[in-house]
Amino acid sequence: MTNMHNIEELESQLSQSQNGDTSFLRSCFNGLNALTGIGIVSIPYALSEGGWMSLIALFFIAILCFYTGLLLNKCMVSNPLIKSYPDIGEQAFGNKGKIIISIIMYVELFLVAFEFLIMEGDNLHNLFPNVCVNVFKKNIGGKQVFILIAALVILPTTWLRSLNFLAYLSVGGILSSLILLSSVFWIGTFEGVGFHEKGDVWRYDGLAIAISLYTFCYCGHAVFPTLRTSMKDKRQFPKVLLVCFVLSTINYGLMAILGYLMYGEDLKSQVTLNLPTKNIISKIAIYTTLISPITKYAMIISPITTALEERLMRRNNKLLSIIIRTIVVIGTVIVAIFVPFFGYVMAFIGGFTGISASILFPCLCYLKIKRESRNFEIELIFIMVILFLGFVSVVVGTFTSISDIVKHVS
């Protein structure tokens, strides 16, 4: 399938090198950048949905995703020609495996792209709640207006064929999450909010949403194979994964605990929407959150737009390329306007594409590639348990998130 190199292009922007010369420290930085994303703003809401005991699920999912990352590494060790996640699918299940994994990845990229727009609309509306536009005697709410404005700002960046500059900007993702975490801690400690909320020990009815949101935070498996390929010493890749998962889990765990102690059951889908908008620290946190989508949106949709160009363009045509990319942006804007539910959409991404790509596919591919081995009977039992739990989580999480979206749309 000729579109696979488009995903590899996105992955290579994160790993910065395909020549096997990336150091251990640089690889850790790149891995953290892959695991650190917009999930940081929703992790307190996830905890409020599941209660304090759901933190066990967060740590359990982190361990599972770390383990399935190791399974991807074992798959790559079996064949030095494997360079990307779709290559693993092809090695295991032929061209069909490659296509299925690619489709899941494209769907996830599109969903994340319009999640960026929802985030922009929500946070800008939080800063400027009184904005309203009258078009043909019909009032358009501020959130929809800000989604359109954000899309107009982002649109020119999608016309760039080379994303090297945008890739350079996007490495600020780790710094952004640290600034956000520090800002939330500062507001809770010094701005009169405090950490007084007790919360619920256990919320069974919200556990499915919580698990889906937790899984979203660890959806980095698409870039792990390319990250490994870029390393100077590929034997250190398991150590890189360990460092990345430990540090990202500490980051997510701290943000979840701080946010839940501050706002309890009043937490919104993004913790930035709870922050007081009049003090400078809150504005720093919100503006930091707003910058990330602008710098990453074009990179996220690049594999989709490049794939469409290869299908629809027989030769290089800049005007047609701009039209195609603009149409994709318009598509994400339309979905963001009509389905502006950040938390539920993120839960759907985590529950469907996240669990599929981060838990199910690594296990299935590993079992198929290692099917002739006779030395992994105990591991086989463990993987079968993971697959069972994964399939149940996909069904329950996807059904719950879709039900919530439909309920709010209607």
From TrEMBL:
It is found in: Membrane. Residues 22-402 form the Amino acid transporter transmembrane domain. It is a multi-pass membrane protein. InterPro entries: AA_transpt_TM. It holds the Pfam family Aa_trans. The keyword Transmembrane applies. Keywords: Amino-acid transport, Membrane, Transmembrane, Transmembrane helix, Transport. The keyword Transmembrane applies. GO terms for cellular component: vacuolar membrane. It comes from the Eukaryota. The chain crosses the membrane at residues 24-46, 52-72, 99-119, 139-159, 166-187, 207-228, 240-264, 284-307, 319-339, 345-367, 379-402. Its main location: membrane. GO terms for molecular function: L-amino acid transmembrane transporter activity. This is Amino acid transporter. It comes from Handroanthus impetiginosus.
